[in-house]
What does this fold into?
Amino acid sequence: MGQFCNQGGRAEPLYELLREQLGERLPAWMAKGESGDLRWESASCLSMCGGGPNAVIYPEDVAYNHLDKSTLEAIINALKAGEDLPK
Ligand code: FES
It folds into this structure.
């Protein structure tokens, strides 16, 4: 949700999709728990500003750049199903 990733509000549909699919975001210290539940937080900057909108999936430590709604839906569906993350 940083100034470059959310230029013109382009990250807001992604934020809404996360909220719809996974519930309200959590503060970072809660989102990084070890429970195995899907949790999310928003970042002000991931230091990949030229590739935004960006997302990083943990604990896999996989980054997605130029993220759009269909890719984010595929990521969420894969995580919920316990399947491999989309390329
Ligand atoms: S503003 Fe998104 S990575 Fe920097």
